[in-house]
């Protein structure tokens, strides 16, 4: 018997069974969404891994056509990724917050690595790893540290870190454009206005470069790459499916485009030297390179071991960027002693021995990752010890 107004036992059991089934369905759906989210971020980490390997490859080779190939896209891919990952909900109306956040995230590792190179300056000069006529006393050391503090590290092994203020400037410029559109333009007009302003900024940057107007922190280049930044943002905002639209025949077409530019034109890209192709060719080449990298990342994502390895490199891309020149020169120093080469002959930059290209590439990637993993473990361990001592002081 059931009480008055109570649900009959069979009906109650059925309702509980339905609720249980719904909870299982919701749980499976949440798990599926979480898996999709993990796969999505894995893809972008793999893409960063492809980008940083391309950078090290370009710096480790003397082959002109190989260098031209990777230089077509190896920096553009990072702006595209940053545009895709831009958090409009958080920073769309707060460009200063975006700048502050990005500066904090970039400044700390930049200063740590730049400061390390400053401290090692005399040692590296003594052993001729990096040629320098200047010996750092206390005054010179302080001045070099001050420059590093303002993202202007003067040390040769930090050369690849010129990219940091460029990335900060491009992201901030894009954030300001988006803020302006969101706050001063009608909603229906915003997407097109943001695209137009981004293209305008890029063309203005290209004009500055061609007129040889070079600003501090490569700001002319930061303007140049804002359309690339916008491209990544558009892919996410417009929900363009990379899985659907990045195909083998599209990759073949882009590869053919690369072949044309490499074989039948003299177009080259070297952003650190303010060298870009004429017209809109920079954006055509960048788009083709980004598409090819997305196709490669899509393939690697389907190969668990290779994909996870590439994603790991992507997570430590800053460390690889900062340290690979130093690794190159350590290889030179060791090799010179093995073959009894005079020390004066190992002063080439970024490396001295063409026969070591493969070694430069492998060690220039692996050693910075191992160093970064070890350094993080040491820092976390020390942090844990300090917290433990603070929470449980000796009486």
From TrEMBL:
It comes from the Bacteria. Residues 43-332 form the Acyltransferase domain. The chain crosses the membrane at residues 41-58, 70-86, 107-124, 160-180, 192-209, 215-233, 245-262, 282-300, 312-336, 356-375. Keywords: Membrane, Transmembrane, Transmembrane helix. Coiled coil: none annotated. Pfam families: Acyl_transf_3. One of its GO terms (molecular function) is acyltransferase activity, transferring groups other than amino-acyl groups. This is Acyltransferase 3 domain-containing protein.
């Amino acid at each position: 018997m059931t009480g008055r107004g109570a649900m009959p036992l069979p009906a109650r059991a059925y309702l509980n069974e339905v609720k249980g089934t719904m909870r299982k369905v919701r749980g499976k759906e949440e798990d599926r969404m979480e898996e999709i989210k993990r796969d999505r971020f894995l893809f972008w980490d793999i893409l960063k891994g492809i980008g940083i390997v391309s950078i090290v490859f370009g710096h480790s080779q003397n082959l002109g056509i190989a260098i031209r190939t990777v230089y077509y896209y190896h920096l553009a891919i990072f702006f595209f990724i940053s545009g895709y990952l831009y958090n409009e909900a958080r920073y769309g109306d707060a460009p200063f917050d975006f700048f502050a956040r990005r500066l904090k995230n970039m400044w700390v590792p930049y200063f740590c690595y730049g400061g390390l190179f400053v401290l090692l300056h005399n040692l590296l000069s003594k052993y001729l790893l990096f040629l320098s006529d200047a010996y750092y006393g206390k005054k010179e050391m302080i001045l070099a540290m001050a420059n590093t503090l303002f993202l202007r590290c003067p040390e040769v092994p930090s050369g690849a870190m010129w990219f940091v203020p460029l990335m900060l400037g491009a992201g901030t410029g894009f954030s300001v454009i988006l803020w302006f559109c969101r706050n001063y333009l009608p909603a229906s007009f915003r997407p097109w206005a943001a695209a137009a302003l981004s293209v305008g900024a890029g063309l203005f940057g290209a004009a500055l470069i061609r007129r040889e107007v070079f600003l501090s922190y490569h700001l002319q280049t930061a303007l140049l790459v804002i359309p690339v930044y916008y491209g990544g943002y558009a892919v996410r905002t417009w929900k363009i499916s990379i899985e659907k639209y990045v195909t083998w025949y599209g990759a073949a077409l882009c590869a053919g485009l690369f072949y044309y530019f490499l074989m039948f034109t003299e177009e080259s890209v070297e952003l650190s030297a303010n060298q870009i192709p004429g017209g809109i060719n920079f954006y055509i080449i960048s788009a083709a390179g980004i598409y090819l990298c997305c196709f490669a990342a899509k393939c690697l994502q389907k190969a668990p071991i290779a994909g996870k390895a590439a994603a790991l490199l992507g997570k430590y891309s800053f460390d690889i960027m900062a340290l690979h020149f130093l690794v190159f020169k350590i290889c030179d120093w060791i090799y010179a002693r093995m073959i009894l080469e005079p020390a004066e002959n190992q002063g080439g930059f970024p490396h001295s021995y063409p026969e070591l290209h493969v070694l430069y590439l492998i060690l220039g990637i692996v050693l910075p990752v191992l160093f970064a993993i070890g350094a993080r473990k040491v820092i976390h361990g020390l942090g844990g010890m300090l917290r433990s001592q603070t929470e449980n002081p000796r009486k």
